Fold:
Amino acid sequence: MGARPVRPSRRWPGAEWWAPLLAGLAAIQRAGAASGPLLAAVELTGEAPTVTAVWPDGSRTTVTPDPEADTQALRDLLAVSGTDTDYPTPGASDPFRLKYAWLLEELSGASDAWFAYTEEPVRLLSVRADETAGAEDITVGVGRPGRGDELSVVFRLGDCEDVIGIPYAIAAQAAGAGPVRVVPLRLPD
Amino acid sequence: MQPLRSAVASAVVMTACAIALAPTAAQADEGPAGKGDMSFSVIDAKSAIPRTGTFQLRDLARYGVEQKAVNRLAEGRTSGAADTAEKAAPAASAAPAAPDPAYSIVGEWKDKDGWDTTMRQGKWPGGDYGFGLTKVDQKHNLSLAAVKATTKYPRPTGGKKQQGGTSYIYVTDVLHVKCSGWWIFRTCRVVDVKAVDAVVNFRTLRDNKPFGVVTAYCENTPGRCPDWVRQAINI
Structure:
């Protein structure tokens, strides 16, 4: 008995295969929060993951990274520069991209939320960020293989200190949701 | 012939004494403490306790349970020794008090590999958010001692795995056991098993200590662990 990653990462055996990718993307998003691209979509379905970067001029690039690639390899693929930096947990007034980077980092370190925490299985399918027209929405796609369906969990981040543990909240809310397509994530008061 | 009869007579006397000694030692526990049905929970640190069939209470020592814990069970004491003491005991820490009390350190220990591990007070704003002892205790009904034991005695194979840049997940099994009979000769069987997961982030914070325990829970149980998990005899 015992819960296991559905498809373990080679680099981090206790994590799902996408965990190193999300960690690398978090570092890139954090370093490029001010002037780099927004890593607007991370798709984790299909044979290989895809990452769509939206540049300040509105142009888009979609790449297919090796999920085990290190951060520098991801930078080379996306043609961005930058270095890893330490980071405090973003507050409510911090830029959206820093909060989004924080979310990617949190997801990368909590694979167990998807294979060990909930009573029924859930799968992380995608992470998307939308900052158009000041929306600052984050949408997490979740699959529910036990029911054969999928749904989206949508939310906005305020003070990230208030939502430490958010991967567990997303997974639990998706697992407990009824047959709906979009679920607003319940945030603490 | 004379020496043989003496030897036999001596043997009979010694045997009688041996039988007598056992009840004498158990006399302080006559009644429910020394005999009869009992149940308890135990961390199966070596993954050796049989999950099917029966075993004798005394066999627990062979399966890796500390002898003093086995002795306590034989005497009828079925709760973990450390539960209430560990629940909120603040650790002696040289670090200055954190400005946010959620980050104050309430426990420090070394995991199975000697890595410095911390438990911070944490917070639980409701739902599935939060971290640290407040969430682990109030949402998942696990004690500081239970989490510490999970990191010190994970499954021997695959019980500690990296799951992030600085995050590790530990897994241990807590068995619910029921026994009947007398003293260490009680016949026991496992009636339930819960895997306990603990996630620890070793990222260093400004106080030069690891972030520590993010969360701990019973697998596939977003809510409270059963009380018997928290009360394992060898926590």
Q: What stands out?
A: Helices of chain B lie at 2-27, 67-74, 83-86, 132-138, 144-152, 227-230. The longest helix of chain B spans residues 2-27. Strands of chain B lie at 38-43, 55-56, 105-110, 116-120, 160-162, 167-180, 187-204, 210-218. Residues 99 and 110 of chain B are 25 Å apart (CA to CA).
